[in-house]
Give the backbone structure.
Amino acid sequence: MEMGDVIIIGSGVAALQLATMLSHDKNVKILTKSHIKNANSYLAQGGIAAAIGDHDDTKKHFADTLQAGRFHNNEESVRDILNEAPALISDFYDIFDKDQQGHLLLGQEGAHSVNRIVHSGGDATGKHIIDYLISKLTDNIEVEENMFAYELMIDHKQQRCVGVKAKDQRGITRYFYGDCVILATGGCGQLYPITSNAPTVTGDGIAMAYLAGAEIADMEFIQFHPTLLFKDGEAKGLISEAVRGEGAILVTGDGVPIMEGIHPLKDLAPRHVVSQTIYNYIENGHEVYLDIRSIKNFGKRFPFITANCEKNGIDLSEGKIPVVPGSHFLMGGIKTDIIGRTSIHGLFAIGEVACTGLHGANRLASNSLLEGLYQGKKLSQWINANLKKHPIPNLPEPCPSLSVNNVSLPDVRVLKEMMMKRVGIVRSKELLEEQKHWLDQFHLHDVTRLDAYSIQDITRIFMYITASLITEAALCRTESRGGHFRSDYPFEDDQNWYKKIIIQKHKGEVAIKYEQIEAALVN
């Protein structure tokens, strides 16, 4: 048994921002399933959006966020986070790129109406922020690497989350108790065969929270990034949206621009529009490229992307980078308020694993690191002011569990292919019902005890559970909005679908409810 005031599961920007801003009298444990830097945040090439330019203001940023999110956003969350953005930028001012006069360089990305993206190291913003936050870790913060959290411990008498079970590299279960348990485990990009996400991002936190009875929202909204470097049939890394912001355009192998006539913003249209367009061309037998010939000093402006292209045998002197869409970001997740409180007392969720309503149906580029910094800061302030000690309950010891209803799960490669085929960029009732029927045969909602499983098997169970939540929500939403596109319902249905789909495990059954949202007005 191991005690801590605050248990943080994950090591991305939200987790580290929280840890470094907690008061030094708090005993903090960070549990991360791999190395502390092996997270999506560290891979983030894009920057952080903030209305700090001379020709910008928060109202414009607000309008762009709602437009990209297709007005499915929580208006209060959007306002609060965007209003805080300039102050959050100032907290990290020294690490951001500046011109010769010392002014912050502001880049452009898709669906932004003005230049408002700050970067660090050109295309290495996430790496620089994580390195900076790690340098601020203090003696009251203990980092446990290669520690796989797999089950939230709920004291039903106290009606609160009191800790988490985790397995070390040897597969030995350890108990971590805390007065606050925070999930900061990221999204679920690895559910698809092509993704920008780190190998560790498999939906663990969402599945854990679901199995513990927390409310899960907006799981149908998956953002597919339009431009992953594609070579030898595999994704080899992300090509940042900033490349198109600097003037690159998407073309076929014959040089035909594919975004002409598709959207007024052309190559800087919202990501779901660009991804669907590329997907359609690929399905019709075309290869798609980013034409970068208009960008001067590409190697200096994008050093990380240049190095990755060269590593993978892409000759940039030809001015074309082969690209394909891939899963990138989850707009949904564990339903929380703006600082991360879930429907379970003592359990919090921050960063991509949480659904605050900021992103709506489709995340605006470079709003995600911003959300992680905001939630980390605000939750630290709440914990510093409100943390209360709770008695340690007597919970049952781990017990063996032999199988999942005696059904073996197929290899995750099968799951990934099925998710892309049936619950990918383009969906339909027929395909979604096929996937639901296929997933239902494994009876994953009946899982209760995971102690006897290996880390590999638990990861696979979590991936299948998270896939089931996505499929269920996508089948329910009979319209197309943001990151959710259905060929049988190709249009937005504002009259019937200004509502959130919330899924919860209740008394062993899957419960689905709908929560009306007010149509946000841009002003």
